[in-house]
Amino acid sequence: MKVFMYTLSTCPWCRKTKNFFKSNNIPFDYVDYDLRPEDEQEKIMEKMLKISGAGSFPVVMIGERVIVGYNPEKYSEVLGLKKGAVA
Known about the structure:
By secondary structure, the chain is of the alpha+beta class. 40% of the residues lie in helices and 20% in strands. A 4-stranded mixed β-sheet has the order 2-1-3-4, sandwiched between helices. The two termini are 19 Å apart.
């Protein structure tokens, strides 16, 4: 399943989320919201609100599933990882 996330470069929970996927050898793409130009930030926030109903970070999309916040248990469940996946 494709993994994509919206993150902030300064957010510790966003870094933990990226590390979770790296540690479990799961490829992912991401956009650091705060490093994008202002006009692009507006478009990103509109999309985030539409898909998640939240304006908080990280927003993780795994296939069609959307998970807001750092939630390694939910990531593992959606990806079908065995218990004990590296958080």
